[in-house]
Structure formats: structure tokens, C-alpha cells
Amino acid sequence: MISTDVGAVVTRFAPSPTGWLHAGHAYSAIRAHDFARGAGGRFLLRIEDIDPGRSREVFVAGIEEDLRWLGLAWDGEVIRQSARFDAYRGALGALGSAGLLYPCFCTRADIAQAANAPHGSEGPVYPGTCRVLDPALRAMRMDREPHAWRIAMDRAVARTGRLHWHDQAVGEMVADPMRFGDVVLARKDAPASYHLAVTVDDAWQRVTDVVRGADLFEATHIHRLLQALLGLPTPRYHHHPLLKDADGERLAKRRGSKSLSDLRANGVDPLALADALRRGETPGL
Ligand code: GLU
């Protein structure tokens, strides 16, 4: 990769268009935006629309409108993950050729039933049902049944050895992807999962600093592994605390919390709102 602006800061806001943005999203976008602007760098907008069942055009339009309303301008064109499937197929192909993937036919219900392992942010650790399928049966089912692709985590970890990343909040981290088990890298309905798409795209867009909520901190263990396996650079990470209301509840998840489009319709002053969020305040949200 030839880079003309070595060292220039690039951040991104990468929402999934599966609902309206809330103040928690706005806070995250502001943090990523301000970090880039403060360093004279670039702020990108990436629409993470790999989930065909839940992504909606109306939410994509809403995201752009909300950011403009808050006074957050992004650089360059908006990238959509739904237009990047070839890149994800390429990465999957490389991992498959290295013998690190296997097809999985399980449904969510199968997995929930079979798993008794500890639950992480990823849901139950996959019990490995499809990993031990007879090869002939596997080949037959692949022709007939929709399947996801999972990583054989122990083989992957054996290949990369010990990995680290730097997180601004906690310092040097040792990656421990093993505890997430054989995570899905391609969905049944798309040639990528969140983990694969985000890793490939952060590298492709030359993101130097991933600024995102602490709810995604744990996923970094998996992203770091994929970077090593795919020969991609590792950005610096800045996981920010999640915005809470006066009762200590997470804004984005709180039931009935107002969307940015509601606030706009109610005549809220967007610049005053953005400034309050910058101070970590959530007035009347
Ligand atoms: N698309 C993810 C979300 O909406 C965020 C991806 C990321 O920042 O890594 O939660």
C-alpha cells in the first residue's frame, strides 16, 4: 500500500442503519470527529449495512441528516459495506486457503441449546458442532444448505502467536481472542460478519485511530487477530465511556430515549446539544 499522507490522522464513524441515531451515537460521532479535526486529520463516514434484513435506506438518510444537523462534516464519499462484498470475499478466501475456516449450518436456536460455555459480549461461545462434521456430509450439506463461515480459533491463534494493541484508555492490551471461540466471519446472508467487515474496511480506509464506544472494546481482541492473519496494520484504539443519563442508564439502549430526529423535530438547538455532549452532559435527553 502506498500512502501519501503517512502519519495523518484518520477516524471514522461507522453506524449500522438499523434504527434512528440517538444521543449516544451523536456522542461517539462527535468524539471521532473532534479527534480527527483536533489533529488536522480526516473524519470518515462508513455505513455498516451488511445485515440485509435490518438495514433500511431511510436510516442511512437519517444518519447523514443527523450528522449535518449536529454540524459534523465528513470527508470524502460515504462508504457502504454492502458495496464492499468483493473485498470481504477476498479476505475470506485468504483465510480459507490458510485452512482457518469451516462452514457452519447451525441456527441460533441450535447454538443456544448446545452451548453451556460462559457468555461473552459475543453471545454463547460456539460449541463446535459443525467443526467435527464428517467431510463427506459437510460437502453434501454445503451444496444444499445456507451456511456461515467460522474461524477455527485455536489454529488461528497458533498461527499468529501473542498479539498486542494500544488502547488510549487502558494502555497496552494483550489480545485474547481464544475466549470468544470460533466466531462467525461470514454470515449466512452476507460474505462478512461485523468483525471481518470492520477489520478489512478500517485498513482499506487507512483509519489510524478507531474512536468508538466501550461496548466494542472486547471485539478488538478479534479484530487484532484478523489484522495479523490478513497482514493489515493495527490502528490505535480509543474506546470512550458510554453516555449515561442522570440515573446512570445507557442512553442508546434506554427504552423510550429520544432519537436525534425527534429532537430535531422538537426544535432542539443542535449546536447547543453538540456542545453539551462534548462536556459529557445529557440535558433533558
Ligand atoms: N457498526 C457498529 C455499530 O453500529 C460500530 C462499528 C465500529 O465502530 O467498530 O455499533
Give a structural overview.
The protein is of the alpha/beta class and 285 residues long. It has 2 domains: 10-83 and 243-278, 3-Layer(aba) Sandwich (Rossmann fold); 86-186, Glutamyl-tRNA Synthetase, Domain 3 (Glutamyl-tRNA Synthetase, domain 3, Alpha-Beta Complex). Helix content is 37%, strand content 16%. The strands form 5 sheets. The chain has a 3-stranded parallel β-sheet with strand order 1-2-3. A 3-stranded antiparallel β-sheet has the order 4-7-10. α7 packs across α8 (219-230). The structure holds glutamic acid.
Q: Would you summarize the structure shown here?
A:
The protein is of the alpha/beta class.
Q: Determine the strand fraction and express it as a percent band.
A: 15-25%
Average pLDDT rating: 92
Shape: globular
Percentage of residues assigned to helices? 25-40%
User: Which radius of gyration do the C-alpha atoms yield?
Assistant: 20 Å
How would the blueprint of this fold be written?
Blueprint lengths: L9 E4 L9 H16 L3 E6 L9 H13 L9 E2 L4 H13 L3 E4 L3 H7 L4 E2 L2 E2 L10 H10 L3 E4 L1 H8 L3 E4 L3 E4 L9 E3 L7 H11 L4 E5 L5 H12 L5 E5 L19 H6 L4 H9 L7
Glutamic acid binds next to loops.
Which features does this protein show?
285 residues; alpha/beta; Rossmann fold; Glutamyl-tRNA Synthetase, domain 3; 2 domains; three-stranded parallel sheet; three-stranded antiparallel sheet
